[in-house]
């Protein structure tokens, strides 16, 4: 992921990720601290600009000393029900985030992914409070940890609440990387044995599903830097290679090699299977949905 440093706005908030934070080596703690400070500054700005939100912003962000506490509080309140109390969920999320640096790193990476890749994401605080794709991902990671610990009943109960509240259905057994963007997120379905790599972008109404009643390893494996367009369906234990692109509305039943593009129903590789056209960038980061259209015209001609 590349970014350039821009001067602070009039409110003193830097609007893009500073170049220093993209350079290696950089500690995850430093990146988390920078993002958390941005969130707090944005919340103060919004509370001043919109006094009717001041109490809400104080309770969700400004009264908390850390990102994991603010995130735990917000998720607990969003996912609670009359019989699944917010205090129970808050403690569950906080215990998981506090004891697992990898969960906190993934949350920060997801925040950065949304802020950099989605032009509609106006601030980190907006993503933290309002992006249901981001919130569903963070809740899923906790349910996945519970699943790995053998606490399947609680993992499935949490999974059910995520489906009900966010309209995102990710089985607790699914393994997801970091730096993931679920853009719009409504209707995303990811099956139990699916694997999704790092820096992947998935649009709304995408299904990573199985092909029938058989058990075992039956869901797609998605590599790093992949882009899956809106309404696409990928079925079975197929491989979507690193840097591949799946066009919107496609139905994929075949392996997609790295850096190639699959489109259509059933999906075919742009350029043909023998000599498929290659993507020059990582579509999951560039969010380039339509460059393959020119390639299709070239091959058709």
Write a short abstract of this structure.
This protein has about 300 residues and is of the alpha/beta class. The chain has helices at about 20, 30-50, 55-60, 65-80, 85-100, 100-115, 125-130, 130-150, 150-165, 285, 290-300; strands at about 170, 175, 180-185, 190, 195, 200-205, 205-210, 220, 225-230, 235, 240, 245, 250, 260-265, 265-270.
Could you explain the architecture of this structure?
This protein has 301 residues and is α/β, with parallel strands linked by helices. Helix content is 44%, strand content 12%. It has eleven helices and 15 strands. The strands form three sheets. It has a six-stranded mixed sheet with strand order 3-6-9-12-14-15. The longest helix is centred in the first third of the chain and has 22 residues, at 28-49. It is globular, with a radius of gyration of 20 Å. The two termini are 35 Å apart. 42% of the residues are buried. Mean pLDDT is 91; it is low at 1-12.
Estimate the global geometry from the Cα principal axes: globular
* Largest sheet data: 6 strands, mixed
Low-confidence stretches: 1-12
Distance between the termini: 35 Å
What's the β-strand tally? 15
Radius of gyration: 20 Å
Give the strand line-up of the largest sheet: 3-6-9-12-14-15
Helix-strand makeup class: alpha/beta
Number of helices: 11
């Amino acid at each position: 992921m590349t970014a350039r440093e821009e001067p602070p706005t009039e409110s003193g908030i830097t609007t893009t990720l500073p170049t220093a934070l993209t350079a290696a080596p950089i500690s995850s703690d430093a990146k988390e601290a920078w993002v958390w400070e941005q969130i707090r500054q944005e919340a103060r700005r919004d509370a001043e600009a919109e006094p009717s939100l001041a109490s809400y912003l104080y309770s969700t962000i400004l009264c908390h000393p850390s990102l994991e506490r603010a995130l735990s509080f917000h998720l607990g309140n969003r996912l609670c029900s009359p019989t699944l109390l917010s205090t129970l969920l808050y403690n569950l999320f906080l215990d998981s985030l506090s004891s697992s640096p990898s969960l906190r790193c993934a949350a920060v990476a997801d925040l950065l992914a949304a802020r950099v890749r989605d032009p509609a994401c106006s601030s980190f605080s907006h993503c933290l409070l309002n992006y249901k794709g981001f919130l569903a991902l963070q809740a899923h990671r906790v349910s996945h940890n519970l699943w790995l610990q053998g606490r399947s009943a609680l993992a499935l109960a949490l999974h059910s609440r995520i489906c009900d509240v966010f309209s995102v259905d990710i089985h607790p057994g699914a393994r997801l990387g970091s730096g993931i963007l679920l853009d719009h997120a409504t209707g995303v379905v990811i099956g139990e044995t699916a694997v999704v790599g790092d820096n992947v972008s998935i649009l709304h109404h995408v299904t990573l599903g199985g092909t029938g009643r058989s058990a075992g390893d039956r869901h797609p494996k998605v590599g790093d830097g992949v882009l899956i367009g809106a309404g696409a369906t990928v079925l079975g234990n197929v491989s979507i290679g690193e840097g591949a692109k799946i066009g919107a509305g496609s139905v994929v039943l075949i392996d997609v090699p790295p850096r190639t593009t699959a489109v259509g129903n059933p999906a075919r590789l742009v350029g043909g299977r023998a000599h498929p056209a290659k993507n020059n960038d990582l579509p999951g980061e560039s969010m380039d949905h339509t460059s393959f259209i020119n390639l299709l015209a070239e091959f058709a001609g």
